[in-house]
Design a protein that fits this description.
di-copper center containing domain from catechol oxidase; two-stranded antiparallel sheet; 12 helices; oxidoreductase activity; Tyrosinase/Hemocyanin
Length: 327
């Protein structure tokens, strides 16, 4: 009898646990030089790989398509409840593109920004051989001139009258690194968010403090609310933000695997600060929610580069849809 029960328990576990060999998302600094180069090669590959999905004429590479997606959704993936889940799924998209089109076999690394908060310029992510290259050239429009993305040309721009409307453009990856601004990525800022008891409070805290610090501290392209995924540091940064949310969830998975909230439509102040229009009628059916509050049934779209899922599907990073672990 006892062994039958044990057997049944094992079967139940095997059915529930579909994420048997999670992809490891490692601390950037703990990658070997060989691992760093393999990851960098795959990132460079995305920047040169022809577009695959045909999303937009101006988007000629996979890199552009990924940036176009973020740009055109910017006014309903920022300043809203789906901010963290959407960007979690966007990291999954990125990881899958690296693996599917560029033969990458590892997980997306993260940049532990808290360790570097005292002085961003000393971070090893900016290394010109084993990193993404450093600050822009102040005598040349802040264009990045070293590392694997030196003088990288980007092709998707935004109109100034409404920054979520794309236009074909030609510009260069640029950065204007600021140690002062980056200091708000400090561990103490993260601790404040970590201490909050509900998603409703926590997403705003993580979004405003540690999240903004990575964008503003890097500056240039990365500081642009809609075009920021043009800079590869975006993905190191957002994987870290996702890790921070997962740490917060892990405090009490019973409660926090189902804790969602926040508004679906940004405030008017947020829209005007970013110089974009409020999302239109095609969004205000709230994409799966009954009203202007984000719930677990909210639909996350990547323009079908990977399938639509719901917020519920991405709450667990070790689940069916996302199967990774932060190490
Ligand atoms: C990442 O590595 C740095 C050392 O380079 C270490 O100080 C830090 O604690 C690590 N972060 C995590 C989350 O393990
Ligand atoms: C990926 O590997 C396949 C099979 O070895 C090869 O044909 C293809 O060229 C590789 N793609 C890239 C982008 O390296
Ligand atoms: C960061 O380090 C650089 C290089 O050592 C130094 O020039 C700069 O003053 C430091 N910044 C801060 C805020 O400590
Ligand atoms: C920065 O730009 C100036 C002006 O174009 C140029 O003379 C200089 O060589 C550039 N520096 C680097 C490191 O590329
Ligand atoms: C710097 O990047 C921004 C995108 O955020 C772009 O609009 C601008 O033209 C770029 N600057 C240069 C000199 O390429
Ligand atoms: C976790 O959350 C559940 C549901 O809200 C609660 O009953 C339980 O006490 C919490 N556990 C801890 C350790 O806080
Ligand atoms: C959605 O909620 C936010 C925050 O309460 C509010 O500022 C915004 O006006 C609401 N939008 C709509 C369309 O109801
Ligand atoms: C939403 O509507 C706007 C304006 O009508 C349009 O430009 C945009 O492509 C639509 N977005 C989606 C996701 O359908
Ligand atoms: C995916 O979701 C988007 C946004 O809700 C929607 O416009 C699109 O039709 C969905 N696609 C499918 C195949 O359901
Ligand atoms: Cu974003």
């Amino acid at each position: 009898m006892e062994s039958v029960l044990v057997l049944l328990a094992c079967v139940a576990l095997a059915v529930a646990d579909t994420c048997e060999s999670p992809v490891q998302r490692k601390n950037f600094t703990s990658l070997s030089n060989e691992e760093k180069l393999a990851w960098l090669d795959a990132e460079v590959c995305l920047t040169t790989h022809d577009a695959v999905f045909g999303l937009y004429d101006g988007a000629t590479t996979l890199w552009d398509e990924q940036q176009y997606l973020h740009l055109t959704m910017s006014n309903y993936i920022h300043g809203v409840g789906q901010f963290l889940p959407w960007h979690r799924y966007y990291m999954t998209l990125h990881e899958k593109l690296l693996q599917t089109y560029c033969n990458y076999t590892g997980g997306m690394p993260y940049w532990d920004e808290q360790v570097d908060a005292d002085n961003i310029t000393l971070s090893s992510v900016w290394d010109s051989v084993y990193g993404i290259g450093g600050d822009g050239n102040s005598s040349d429009s802040q264009i990045v001139t070293d590392g694997p993305f030196a003088y990288m040309e980007l092709h998707v721009g935004a109109w100034s009258f409404n920054t979520v409307i794309p236009k074909t453009a030609t510009y260069h990856l640029n950065r204007s690194i600021s140690s002062m601004t980056f200091q708000s990525a400090s561990q103490s800022a993260v601790d404040e968010c970590f201490a909050l008891g509900s998603y409703e409070e926590a997403w705003q805290c993580y979004g405003q403090g540690p999240h903004s610090a990575g964008h503003a501290g890097t500056g240039g392209t990365m500081q642009d609310p809609v075009l920021s995924p043009g800079d590869p540091v975006f993905f190191l940064h957002h994987t870290n933000l996702d890790r921070l949310w997962w740490e917060w969830q892990s405090v009490n998975l019973t409660a926090r695997l189902i804790d969602m909230g926040g508004q679906n439509v940004p405030t008017d102040e947020f829209n005007s600060a970013n110089n974009w229009d409020a999302p239109g009628a095609n969004f205000t059916d709230y994409s799966g929610d009954p009203g202007n509050v984000t719930t677990l049934t909210h639909v996350l779209s990547m323009y079908e580069m990977i399938p639509n899922v719901t917020v519920a599907d991405v709450m667990d990073v070790g689940g069916d849809v996302i199967c990774v672990e932060y190490v």
